[in-house]
Design brief:
By secondary structure, the chain is an all-alpha fold. Helix content is 83%, strand content 0%. The chain has one domain (18-195, 210-400): MFS general substrate transporter like domains (Growth Hormone, Chain: A, Up-down Bundle).
C-alpha cells in the first residue's frame, strides 16, 4: 500500500520541473517581455522616422541572417559545458542593452544596426540555453520542458505588447523603448542566479576539434529532418508583418491610430495563443508522433496565409487568422527543438542546436526579405502566397522523411 502511494505520488509530481527548467523559463519570460514590447511598436516607430514598409522586412531579414552566424558560433560554445552559462548571460544582456538603445535612434539604419546586434546576442545564447534545457530533464520529458520554456517565452511576448499599450500614452514611443531595459536585465539576472551550470566534461567536447568534424558526428536522420524545417523556414516570415497587414486592412475604416492599437492587440492575442499552445503541444508530443504534430502546426500557418490572401478580411476573421498563426508558432517552437534533441548525440548536441538555429535564422532572413519585397513590388497577397506554399512543402517533408 505504501509503495503504491509512493508510486502514485511520484507519477503525479512534475519531475520535469527542475531548477534548470524554471530558471530558463523565467529568463525567456523576462527577455521576451522586454524585446516584444519594442517589437509591437516597431512598425509605428519606423513610420515615425520616415522608413517605408519594405524597411521592416529588411531589418527583420538582415538581423535574422546575422543572427545565424552567431547561432552557429553559439553551438560551438554550447559543446563546452563550462561556457554554456556565461554565453547565456552575455546573450541576454546584449538583447536588453541594444533594445534599450532603440530609443535614441534617429534613422532606420541605426535601428537595423541595433536590431542586428541584439539578435546576434539572441543567436549566440540559443544553443547554450537549449542544451542546458535538454540536459535538465529525462529524454521522455523533453517535450514538456521545451513546451514550458516556449510557453514562458510566449507569455513574455503577451506581457510585452500589453505593457507597451498601457505605457504608450504616458511615456511615448521612445519612453517605452527605454523602459524595456528593466525586464531585459531581469532575464540576465534570472539566468545568472537560477540556472545550474552545464553538465559534462570539456574533454568530451575537445575530442572533436573542428566544426567540420563536429558536423560529421551529426546523424543523417537529423539532416533529413532539418531539410523539412528549412523548407518551412524560408516562408516563415516575422510576425511584425502581420501587425503591418492588420494595420493596412483596418486603417481605411477605423483610422490610423485606432487601427494601430487594434493591430497591437491582435499581436498580443497571437502571443497569448502561442503561449497557450506551447506546453500542451510539447506534452502531447511526448506521447505521440512529434513529426506528425509538427506537420499539423505547419499546416496551421498555411491556412492562416490563405486567409490573408482575402482582399479585406473582417476584424473577426483577423482574430481567427492571428489565432491560427499563434497555434503554428507554439507548435513549431516546442516540437522542432524537442524532436531534434532526441536525434542528437550528447557530445555534439550544442552544435546540432546551433545548426538548427542557423537554418531557422537563414530561413527567417530569406522569408522576411522575400515577403517584404513581394509585398512592396506586387502586393501583400503575393507575400502570403509565397509563405503559404513553403509552409505546405515543409509539412510534407517533416512528416514524410523518416
Amino acid at each position: 500500500m505504501i509503495m503504491g502511494e509512493l508510486s502514485t505520488s511520484s507519477a503525479r509530481s512534475p519531475r520535469w520541473m527542475t531548477p534548470g527548467v524554471v530558471g530558463i523559463g523565467l529568463s525567456s519570460l523576462f527577455s521576451d517581455w522586454g524585446h516584444e514590447a519594442a517589437t509591437a511598436i516597431l512598425p509605428a516607430f519606423l513610420a515615425s522616422i520616415g522608413a517605408p514598409a519594405v524597411v521592416l522586412g529588411i531589418i527583420e531579414g538582415v538581423s535574422d541572417g546575422l543572427s545565424s552566424v552567431a547561432k552557429l558560433a553559439g553551438g560551438f560554445l554550447a559543446d563546452h559545458p563550462r561556457w554554456r552559462k556565461p554565453a547565456g548571460i552575455v546573450g541576454y544582456l546584449a538583447t536588453a542593452v541594444t533594445t534599450f538603445f532603440y530609443a535614441f535612434a534617429r534613422s532606420w539604419p541605426s535601428v537595423l544596426l541595433l536590431r542586428a546586434l541584439g539578435w546576434m546576442g539572441r543567436g549566440e545564447r540559443g544553443p547554450s540555453r537549449d542544451t542546458l534545457l535538454a540536459d535538465s530533464v529525462a529524454p521522455g520529458e523533453r517535450g514538456r520542458a521545451f513546451g514550458f520554456e516556449r510557453a514562458m517565452d510566449s507569455l513574455g511576448a503577451v506581457l510585452g505588447p500589453l505593457c507597451a499599450t498601457v505605457l504608450l500614452g504616458a511615456l511615448g514611443v521612445r519612453g517605452v523603448l527605454r523602459w524595456t531595459l528593466l525586464p531585459g536585465a531581469a532575464a540576465a539576472v534570472a539566468f545568472a542566479f537560477l540556472v545550474p551550470p552545464g553538465r559534462g566534461h570539456d574533454h568530451q567536447a575537445a575530442e572533436i576539434q573542428t566544426m567540420r568534424a563536429r558536423f560529421a558526428q551529426l546523424p543523417k536522420s537529423f539532416w533529413y529532418f532539418l531539410a523539412g524545417i528549412f523548407a518551412h523556414g524560408i516562408g516563415d516570415f516575422a510576425p511584425t508583418l502581420l501587425i503591418l497587414r492588420a494595420s493596412e486592412i483596418l486603417a481605411p475604416r477605423m483610422g490610423v491610430a485606432r487601427a494601430a492599437t487594434i493591430s497591437v492587440a491582435l499581436y498580443t492575442f497571437y502571443n497569448l495563443v502561442n503561449a497557450a499552445a506551447a506546453y500542451p503541444a510539447g506534452a502531447l508530443a511526448d506521447r505521440i508522433d512529434k513529426r506528425g504534430l509538427l506537420a499539423m502546426g505547419y499546416l496551421a500557418s498555411a491556412v492562416a496565409c490563405a486567409g490573408f490572401l482575402l482582399e479585406r478580411p473582417t476584424l473577426p476573421m483577423l482574430v481567427v487568422l492571428f489565432g491560427l498563426a499563434g497555434v503554428h508558432r507554439g507548435v513549431e517552437q516546442s516540437l522542432e527543438k524537442s524532436a531534434v534533441a532526441e536525434l542528437l548525440p550528447r557530445a555534439v548536441r550544442g552544435s546540432g542546436f546551433g545548426v538548427l538555429a542557423t537554418v531557422n535564422g537563414i530561413g527567417d532572413m530569406v522569408s522576411s526579405a522575400a515577403v517584404g519585397a513581394l509585398w512592396s513590388a506586387v502586393g501583400p497577397a503575393a507575400g502570403f502566397l509565397y509563405a503559404g506554399a513553403f509552409a505546405l512543402v515543409g509539412a510534407v517533408l517533416v512528416f514524410g522523411w523518416r
